[in-house]
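Our preliminary data section would be incomplete without showing what the modeling component actually yields. Below, a chain of 175 amino acids is followed by its predicted structure, encoded as tokens that our downstream tools consume directly.
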Amino acid sequence: MRVAVSFLRFITASVSLLFVCACNVTEDLPTYAESTIVGEGDLIPNFEVVLTDGTTLDSRDYIGEPLLLILFSPACPDCKMLLDELQQLIDADESLPQMLAVGRDATHDDIVAYADENGYTMPLAPDAQRGVFSLFATNYVPRTYLIGRDGVVEMLAIEYDPSYIPALLERAALL
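Predicted structure:
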């Protein structure tokens, strides 16, 4: 009986410690502002990506045209909801700016499989080593950047909220 009570106390203490530690980890996460390196009004940094079809793109290729840059993770449910909504707009032939979706922590094969599984036709590129992501932020996906013709960030949305898509598209139409 004593062994069972001692074991139960040990388990209770271990679980309590786990919850306390988990809460402390969450408290140490940066705010959106603290995690943002490139924000509204900033010029985007130069970067290069290789799309899933093998095409190499440079961020300077988009100067002169608005761009919707999405930094996402295939493991993120909110990212999937955002990409699903954008794909629905593409399928409906909505007027959209050029798009580029860059998959943080994902390899070429990961992104190809993710696109095939979800029916994505937008340009997708892997960012396995976070080379692109780390130019823009330290935490949090999805990040959606509306970039103007001059390469300056016009709007930034962090995380996913379907209400910001119409605002992004309305703003993009004015660029």
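Confidence is low (pLDDT under 50) at residues 4-8, 10-25. The CA atoms of residues 158 and 174 lie 21 Å apart. Preliminary results of this kind motivate Aim 1 of the renewal.
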